[in-house]
Amino acid sequence: LIIGVSGTALQKNVSVGSPTKVELTCKLDENSHLKNPQVTWKRGSETISHTSKTQNSWTIQLTISDNSQLGSYSCILKGEVEVSATFHLQVPQIEGKEKPVITYEGDLAVMVCKTEYAPMAWNWYMTNGTELVAINPSSDTNKFRIKKQSANVDRLEILKLTKEDSGVYWCEAAFRLGKSKRRFELKVLSIMAPLKPFIAVVAEVVILVTTIALYEVYSKRKGEEGEREFDQIEQL
């Protein structure tokens, strides 16, 4: 739905996982001041014709048979002002946390990927330099577990973490029209890491207490020496 305000450029993502027919419609708000606009549909920079039109809406119908037909489709309305709306046809994107996964040595790391539509297959990879190495739980059952929570949710567990497990991991969802990937960064910290601030504070307290104690011993000795000198003067 296009309001018709000058400079408006609407964006909408459309997930397409398998071959299908798609209908895209731009509809001008009935309260818009933009009257009888000239309408152009484009795929990227290529102009295409719309297949149906009513008084305030313009539609194109697409048959998506392979991933070469994915991409951006825009309707451009020109009148007193120019407004547009763009549909981004893409394979379903993978949902996942953007923040690094932070855990400690000996613990368990969990990574979960979810898509809007069920993919044909899920794959997991770890990064080794510039290469992606496929994770195969059956070859290392003591290190990795993959659990399919549902058709569109997959879960990787990394067991008995060590510092060497730190790095970048990927999950991949394979659809008939293409693949989607999601990046995870894993940071494995030493079990001593959370104790370091506490140890630093304790060390500072120990230094402070030791300094005070030494100062008191020094002051006491100086006082005793002063008293002995005073006694000797009295005797003289």
UniProtKB/TrEMBL annotation:
Transmembrane stretches, start-end: 198-218
Pfam family, one: V-set_CD47
Keyword Ribonucleoprotein belongs to the record: no
Gene Ontology terms describing biological process: cell-cell adhesion
GO cellular component: membrane
Keyword annotations of the record: Disulfide bond, Membrane, Repeat, Transmembrane, Transmembrane helix
Entry annotated with the keyword Protein transport: no
Record-annotated Ig-like domain positions: 17-86, 92-190
PANTHER family: CONTACTIN, PROTEIN SIDEKICK
Protein name: EMB protein
